[in-house]
Design brief:
- The protein has a single domain, classed as Nuclear Transport Factor 2, Chain: A.
- By secondary structure, the chain is of the alpha+beta class.
- It is 36% helix and 33% strand.
- Strands 1, 2, 3, 4 and 5 form a five-stranded antiparallel β-sheet that branches.
Amino acid sequence: MYRLSVIAGLLVVMLSGCPSDGGMAAISGSRVSDEQQIAMIMDDVQLGIQRRQIYKVLAHVARGYRDEAGRDYEAVRDRAGELMKAYHKVDLTRALPKILVKGDQARVVETFGLSGEPAESDKYLPVNMQGNAVVFLYKLNGVWLITSVTLQ
């Protein structure tokens, strides 16, 4: 049961995300679509996890975050810190996400592979799993934020 909690915690942290206001549009001179903004957020979350930059991941999470396990923003933040200490190496691979935008709400279906090596093998088990997660976002003042993650 504890291993499932660790895995779920890693996924919530990995698939929760920093606000992106489409700053790349200002650089390139073209408008970035909502789908492109969301794809960049999900890429940034992956990069943050692999570089162990919790702040990069949490910057994408809405303060009103609530998932099916009842975790809120503070619980995700705290769990992220614990997991980054417990696992010294985490690799996340993803297929191209399926992104559906309806107005100021979006749903992303992520197919992923996750592996993690524990810092203390006598306390934690290695993680190696594949699966799907549905990430829900909303747009507030031009910024997409993650409001929930559901594992499938």
